[in-house]
Specification:
The chain is an all-alpha fold. The protein has a domain of 241 residues. Helix content is 62%, strand content 1%. Helix 3 crosses helix 7, helix 8 crosses helix 10 and helix 9 packs antiparallel against helix 12. It comes from Clupea harengus (Atlantic herring). Pathway: Lipid metabolism; sphingolipid metabolism; Sphingolipid metabolism. Its main location: endoplasmic reticulum.
Length: 385
């Protein structure tokens, strides 16, 4: 069964135009061609990326954060309560009014105390500012270096300036050493992102990020196996050209450098729109969808590759909508740019904060700042933590 599946999967009629196949990618005359077996190096390299990231965040990003005044967020923590914790984890983080009333009967808390408990419990799950800064620093460093390396590898290549050149001689396109490392490093990085997605800052577009990472990994892997190398390098360079700007804007945002954040974000928005909504669909996608059929009859690999391209473009449109909305808000009111993909920190109202500073509310000597005190003799009141 496995042998049959392998034979079907690697059938060259699926992945190549008629008359071409895997034999055309066999090394000869001193020329080297990409092979599927080359991708085995991605897993150890992805694990190495995860290790390097941990070292980078501790030894580089954290000191930079300290210099810029970025500190770990200190949040008020809730008093452990089994009933509320069970409801929070198993039912919902946002209880309805009827659920709040029911929880009041179970715990002896007032409605305001239950609502405050849930607010603070939600805040506890949100990543703190330092974690966000370190993550943005790591991605900024990689994207900037990757863009510089990609530009260096492609600056003298004719297909950078004439996109139709990406198919000249396909599939007999020999592999350059720079292309090999560019591919392996990019693919390993995205694999590392996918492995660490559960521990990274979780935003509202979490599902879209997963789809993006999977589509990118499939696109890079597939383009490598069937020697769409020139198209692949152009796609990677195009994406890296704006990503480092976004991450740098995030870093300045977390550091409180409002003007720098806003101006870099506007620059990022312009680059993103030009590269993802103009060059990508009307330049690269035109040369992967329209141009090839003038040379070869469409085949499964053609549809598969362009299906992934369309998936990425749909994500580009979705993110462009969010970016433009944030940019318009900033330009119209000169307010601070906020990432709409992130949940906002929830705060207690001023009256409650005043109660916190004064040691908590007291009503009939029974309920103190969110829970029933266990000891009335020492003159101190327990607080929500």
């Amino acid at each position: 069964m496995l042998a049959w599946l392998s034979e079907v999967f690697w059938n060259e009629r699926l992945w190549f135009p008629e008359g071409l196949g895997w034999k055309d990618l066999e090394d000869r005359d001193g020329l080297v061609y990409p092979k599927a077996s080359d991708l085995y190096v991605v897993l150890p390299m992805a694990l190495a990326f995860m290790l390097v990231r941990q070292v980078f965040e501790r030894t580089v990003a954290t000191p930079i954060a300290a210099l810029l005044g970025v500190k770990e967020t200190v949040r008020l923590r809730v008093t452990p309560n089994p009933s509320l914790e069970a409801f929070f984890c198993r039912t919902t983080k946002y209880p309805t009014q009827s659920s709040v009333q029911s929880l009041c009967k179970q715990t002896g808390y007032t409605e305001k105390q239950v609502q405050r408990w849930f607010r603070r419990r939600r805040n506890q799950d949100r990543p703190n500012l330092l974690k966000k800064f370190r993550e943005a620093s790591w991605r900024f460093t990689f994207y900037l270096l990757a863009f510089a390396a990609g530009l260096g590898a492609l600056i003298d290549k004719p297909w950078l300036y004439n996109l139709s050149e990406m198919w000249e001689g396909f599939p007999v396109l020999s592999l350059l050493q720079s292309q090999y490392w560019y591919y392996m490093i990019e693919l390993s990085f995205y694999a590392a992102l996918l492995f660490s997605v559960a521990s990274d800052v979780k935003r509202k577009d979490f599902n879209e990020q997963i789809v993006h990472h999977v589509a990118t990994i499939l696109l890079i892997s597939f383009s490598w196996c069937v020697n769409y190398i020139r198209a692949g390098t152009l796609i990677m360079l195009l994406h890296d050209s704006s990503d480092y700007l976004l991450e740098s804007a995030k870093m300045f945002n977390y550091a409180g450098w409002r003007n720098a954040c806003n101006y870099i974000f506007i620059l990022f928005a312009a680059v993103f729109i030009i590269t993802r909504l103009i060059i990508f669909p009307f330049g690269i996608m035109y040369c992967t969808i329209v141009y090839p059929v003038t040379i070869y009859k469409p085949f499964f690999g053609y549809y598969f590759f362009n299906g992934l391209m369309v998936t990425l473009q749909c994500l580009h449109i979705f993110w462009a909508y969010l970016i433009v909305r944030m940019a318009v808000r900033f330009l119209g009111s000169n307010e601070k740019v906020e990432d709409e993909r992130s949940d906002k920190e929830e705060t207690d109202d001023s009256a409650e904060e005043e109660e916190e500073r004064n040691g908590g509310p007291k009503k009939n000597g029974q309920v103190l700042n969110g829970h029933i005190p266990h000891n009335h003799n020492n003159g101190h009141h327990n607080k929500l933590e």
